[in-house]
Specification:
By secondary structure, the chain is of the alpha/beta class. The chain is built from seven helices and seven strands.
């Protein structure tokens, strides 16, 4: 990763190449290097947009939280479709929003001038200067972070925050509780909204690992995902994701 104000270079074709697995497009580099085993196609882009809408409900349409009120430099780790990054860039036009992701495939062509996407692997150490950002945002990147990287990943994020500024912080979100059976109307709305995201993410997460690494047939994976989706819809089961 380059310095925020550093020079940029054109993306190497190695990162743009895709492969087809069971009718879904994956970034070949990520598959070959076991980086992020999820699709980079239109279906995944739609899922991420759906997920972003769910988080908007969860956070009452708030993009940032106190003590950050008027950010000037923001880093989004694993920006995906750049939904959050673009919303922040448009809401704070004087803010420079830098996004980092291993795959550029899901980024829309039309983005604000103050959004700067960069390509790199979050499993590698950051090379941004310390004390650079008012806000570092990391949301639902667990599937692309190696278990041995988490401690240093969090340390890297902490080092990037402007420690001398009272209005700086980092926001991390990797999971929220299934609320589809909650009695509270707002919580129930969140749970219902997230059902489609859960079904879609089960498919996205299963295909490459089970077919390419475990050697399962496509039909077997489809059946497994369908059963898992049915279980996810069962209000008697309370799923959780260990990190």
């Amino acid at each position: 990763m380059t310095d925020v104000q550093g020079d940029t270079t054109e993306v190497d074709d190695e990162y743009l190449e895709t492969i087809d697995i069971h009718g879904r497009d994956f970034q070949k580099y990520s598959i070959d290097h076991n980086v992020h085993l999820v699709p980079v196609d239109e279906g995944e882009a739609e899922r991420l947009e759906h997920q972003h809408r769910v988080f908007n409900i969860v956070f009452d349409d708030r993009l940032i939280f106190p003590p950050v009120t008027n950010p000037r430099q923001v880093l989004d780790c694993g920006y995906g479709t750049a939904s959050w990054a673009i919303d922040v860039a448009e809401t704070f036009p004087d803010c420079e929003v830098t996004g980092v992701d291993i795959s550029p495939h899901l980024k829309p062509d039309d983005t604000p001038e103050n959004f700067w996407p960069q390509l790199d692997d979050l499993n590698r150490a950051f090379t941004f200067n310390a004390n650079t950002f008012d806000l570092v945002h990391s949301r639902m990147v667990g599937g692309g972070i190696n278990a041995t990287r988490w401690t240093s990943y969090l340390q890297d994020i902490k080092s990037l925050i402007r420690t001398r500024s009272a209005g700086s912080c980092y926001n991390l979100c990797e999971h929220f509780t299934d609320l589809k059976t909650a009695s509270d109307p707002r919580q129930n709305r969140i749970g219902i909204a997230n059902r489609g995201n859960v079904r879609a993410i089960l498919n996205s997460l299963a295909i490459a690992p089970f077919i390419r690494r475990l050697g399962m047939s496509a039909n077997a994976v489809d059946n497994l995902v369908e059963r898992a989706s049915d279980d996810a819809d069962n209000p008697a089961l309370k799923a959780y994701f260990p990190l």
